[in-house]
Amino acid sequence: MLDLSPLWVSLRIAAIATAIVVILGIVAARFMHGYRGKWRSLLEGIFLAPMVLPPTVLGFLLLLLFGKNGPLGTLLGKIGVNVVFTWYAAVITATVVAFPLMYKTVLGAMEQIDSNVQQAARTLGASELRLLWRVTLPLAFPGIVAGATLAFARALGEFGATLMLAGNIPGKTQTLPMAIYFAVQAGAFREAAAWTGAILVIALGGLVLANQWGDRRRYATKRRRSARLRASGRFRPLSATSNPLLEVTLRKSLAEFTLDVSFVSNGQPLGVLGASGAGKSLILRCIAGVETPDAGRIVLNGRVLFDSDRGIDVPSRDRRVGVLFQNYALFPNMTVAQNVAFGLPGGLSVRQQREIVEKQLAAVRLEGMGDRAVTELSGGQQQRVALARLLASQPEALLLDEPFSALDTHLRAAIERDLQLRLRQFPGITLLVTHNIEEAYRLCSTLLVMDRGSASICDRKQAVFDRPQTVSAARLTGCKNISRAVAVGTSTICALDWSCTLQVAEPIPKTLTHVGLRAHQVEFLEALSRRNKVMRETMVEACLGEETIAENGTEAIAPHPQPTLTNIFPCWLAMQGETPHRMTLYLKLNAPPNSPDDYHVQAEVYKNKWAVLKEMPLPWSIAIDPERLLLLRDSDG
Prior knowledge:
The protein is of the alpha+beta class. 46% of the residues lie in helices and 18% in strands. It is built from 21 helices and 21 strands. It has a six-stranded mixed beta sheet, sandwiched between helices. A five-stranded antiparallel beta sheet has the order 2-1-4-5-6, with helices on one face. It has a five-stranded antiparallel beta sheet with strand order 14-13-12-15-21. A hairpin with a 3-residue loop joins β17 (568-578) and β18. α7 runs antiparallel to α10 (189-230), α9 (176-185) runs antiparallel to α10 and α13 (350-363) crosses α14. It is elongated and about 110 Å long. The N and C termini lie far apart (93 Å). Residues 219-241 and 542-563 have low confidence and may be disordered.
């Protein structure tokens, strides 16, 4: 009769080893996922070495480690424990050889998790343990199951290292692989075939069951989503710091530039404007505690969040700063309601949590969607869920990191309108990072313009538009005409790239390097003359009854004063561009163009003015108002 002890020994050893490997693999993967130190490559090599080392080499190394004279063997011997040639040794070898499969699989699963999701959990007040338990492990769970299955199969089939460390003791350390080997050696091919079949059934069966579980899990998720979409039940909608202040001084060295910025924000929304890579998002990450500045100080409503001199660095979870990421960073393993409830403070009853969630969802017009998976929602709905989640956590500051960048034009307009209404009701600090000047102008009262880590200007939005001061600020605020310039008099400059001399209205600064002119402020004399003619005809008609009005004692209508025009130049059209409502005209001053690319300035006109201009013979005449000229300094000056 076939002795079944190798089967039971193998199952027991593989099960114990898999349980140990699951814990060790998750801990190691979690550590390595966040570790970026200089020893990372060495640690990675040590963790994966059992996967590539020959079993006999691995067994010999374990024997040196756990043998009577080995470091661990000597230590264990002092407490009366002998590992070699025991079933404990078989568990150790099975654990060592199975660990790389578990570690690498779980690490890959964790690396697939969006880092913004984890950062969002921290900004909502989650501790690292809660983040691991509620977000990281659920999202990595399919990888954990796959890793455990592979680890069990590998532990079940371990032979060489186990033979060297645990030996082949029937009923104690003799596993199925050893039973197969010695059965073949003894010529018992039927017994070897039976044990081989057992291993195949167990190992392959485990893999098949794991795959089927994954397929059923995905199918069940889709079925639950479909059921939620068919459900018609709705939640019932139910019937927040004064003088908020954020003071920021940051310095952080990067490979491309050094972030060095200082600003103060009150309750009015502050727009952080700049080109890609200017350091905008890094400011938000430092305020939220996701990044650590090299030096500086961050104070929110009197609370010091970061102070390099005093060694203060409050963790993200305790800063009460909410971040709305570009991709919203919703937790895909949770429903809409669970996402909103994630940041709620502890100690609330289930009823209180439900009431708060319903109130927040009602505020963003998502009543009845609490049971839906966030992956079922449109981009606009996901943005509103993310905003509701932030506001439910009652942050003192709201940081918006280009929240409209991934949306199409129509959806962007609708979501921006909703967000604008919500921001008006938000009583705390609001910072909006964007590179869209129109978006910043509509949503913010003050603008901070960034250029390669430095603030080129921080002022009221109208002041930033009227006097941007630097070339980078002018470009970011939509100025399309910028030329190198030098002063040639007390009120005269030479625009080198436009080949003309200009009169200016304001004193010329010593730092002048460029002059700017916005495209819509180029005035065409042909269109102006036509407009003035219409105005004169209208005034004449209005003045026909002047005598009667004067007899009644009422002041007569005075002629409309005409503007004094300076900086008048002939121009030729090099090329034109068209939008639904406007025309962009590329003009060369003082001489005809040689090619479409041969132009000096751009002018933008509405199509009704274009209808007048295109009927006029070239050259046209343009007037540049001295009051409209922007006297700029180089961004690096």
